[in-house]
Design a protein that fits this description.
6-phosphogluconolactonase_DevB, single chain, NagB/RpiA_transferase-like, 8 helices, seven-stranded parallel sheet, three-stranded antiparallel sheet, alpha/beta, Rossmann fold, hydrolase, 6-phosphogluconolactonase activity
Length: 232
């Protein structure tokens, strides 16, 4: 198990470094398989990375993007990660967007759809981009969520999460990829910014308790070297 911490002077330098890494992963997948797939976190922090990556000269018609997790809301909602990815990657002509949720956001139907899609697409991700909340959650693997064991189950690929309490800024059920599915990737990147999240990361590493800080289920996984990118 392990991780490599990349400290960047600012968010712009971080974005440039991560874009280079993601572009290389995509190109390697395209060269080897003729197709490539990324799983991408939502939230505001990675958006500059995605907007910059969307400008890269790649065969985007052979690339599929999937949210690492999404809120069970109508796809046109501002709370939809899929909508956000569609906007960020608008310049990437022909890119394919895969959804974890159904168009109207129904949670039960969304979980069925997510699991069916993943069953049809067995290949590893070429790269995964994750974020981390100030409570140590990643994707929608929230501490104290009643479904957390589902997210850690190696036999499953997607789970429904109903965080308790629901985050007031986004009080919706979610569909999330499990730890096992997220780690089936050529590269795993964890993107965090600011002193507060750096402190949470350091506490999580010191305690090494995935129940308290679910991000440790990723950082503590055997045979995976997670690339952590941090800037002030």
């Amino acid at each position: 198990m392990g991780w490599t911490l990349h400290t960047h002077a600012d968010a712009r330098q971080l974005a440039a470094h991560l874009v280079d890494s993601l572009q290389a992963s995509l190109q390697a997948g395209l060269d080897e398989h003729g197709a490539a797939m990324l799983a991408l976190a939502g939230g505001s922090t990675p958006w500059p990375v995605y907007e910059r990556l969307a400008q890269a000269p790649l065969a985007w018609q052979n690339v599929t993007l999937l949210p690492t997790d999404d809120r069970c809301v109508p796809v046109e909602s501002p709370a939809s990660n899929l909508r956000g990815l569609a906007e960020a990657f608008a310049p990437a002509s022909g890119v394919h967007l895969a959804a974890l949720t159904v168009p109207d956001g129904d949670p039960d139907a969304s979980l069925i759809q997510a699991r069916a899609w993943l069953a049809r697409h067995r290949q590893d991700f070429d790269a995964v981009v994750l974020g981390m909340g100030t409570d140590g959650h990643t994707a929608s693997l929230f501490p104290q969520a009643p479904e957390l064991a589902c997210g850690f189950d190696p036999a499953l690929e997607a789970c429904r999460f109903d965080p308790d309490p629901l985050p007031p800024e986004a009080p919706y059920p979610r569909i999330s990829l499990t730890v096992g599915r997220l780690l089936r990737a050529g590269a795993v990147h964890l993107l965090i910014t600011g002193a507060a999240k750096r402190a949470v990361l350091e506490e999580a590493i010191a305690l090494n308790d995935p129940q308290r800080h679910p991000v440790m289920a990723v950082l503590g996984a055997p045979a995976v070297d997670v690339q952590i990118h941090w800037s002030p």
